[in-house]
Amino acid sequence: AMRQLPYFCRGEVVKGFGRGSKELGIPTANFSEQVVDSFPSDIPTGIYYGWACVGNGDVHKMVLSIGWNPFYKNTKKSVETHIIHTFKEDFYGEILSIVITGYIRPEKNFDSLDALISAIQEDIEEAKRQLDLPEHLKLKEDNFFHLPEGKIVNNR
């Protein structure tokens, strides 16, 4: 997996393809292209886990997928974060801060939507277990998650 772990990243949440919530029942937050382009180019694609925080909110467990978007004929990498928490509303335009702490598995193709959904559910369970370990848990408290006041977008 990624040599650069833990990897710290923050950026604005933009509208994705709307696939996550609608088809899978698993909402994901997409970073802008600019943020995705700033990721090290040698990051292996696949499923990762870590911590995420929207604006100046609470820090939650998350699962992250780094992959090639077939929609763009495999020229554009996409980075999608599923925060393991139920939000009452969308947070497009907010600043999402994430720390990627570990790697779960490579990307793979699935024969059916059901197979994909159950794989994601397993990824989520694995992420929850890993993030309870002390070396990952300590990153939840990292100062990275405390945005300076000026940085908050759409402070509600």
UniProtKB/TrEMBL annotation:
Top-level EC class as recorded in UniProt: transferase
Domain Riboflavin kinase: 2-132
Organism: Loxia curvirostra (Red crossbill)
Catalytic activity annotation: riboflavin + ATP = FMN + ADP + H(+)
Cofactor requirement: Zn(2+)
GO molecular function, one term: riboflavin kinase activity
Signal peptide segment: none
GO BP field: FMN biosynthetic process; riboflavin biosynthetic process
Keywords annotated in UniProt: ATP-binding, Flavoprotein, FMN, Kinase, Metal-binding, Nucleotide-binding, Transferase, Zinc
Pathway membership: Cofactor biosynthesis; FMN biosynthesis; FMN from riboflavin (ATP route): step 1/1
Keyword Lipid metabolism: no
GO CC annotations, alphabetized: mitochondrion
Chain's role: Catalyzes the phosphorylation of riboflavin (vitamin B2) to form flavin-mononucleotide (FMN), hence rate-limiting enzyme in the synthesis of FAD. Essential for TNF-induced reactive oxygen species (ROS) production. Through its interaction with both TNFRSF1A and CYBA, physically and functionally couples TNFRSF1A to NADPH oxidase. TNF-activation of RFK may enhance the incorporation of FAD in NADPH oxidase, a critical step for the assembly and activation of NADPH oxidase.
Primary gene name: Rfk
InterPro entries given in the database record: Riboflavin_kinase (IPR023468), Riboflavin_kinase_bac/euk (IPR015865), Riboflavin_kinase_dom_sf (IPR023465)
Source domain of life: Eukaryota
Listed name of the protein: Riboflavin kinase
Coiled-coil parts of chain: none
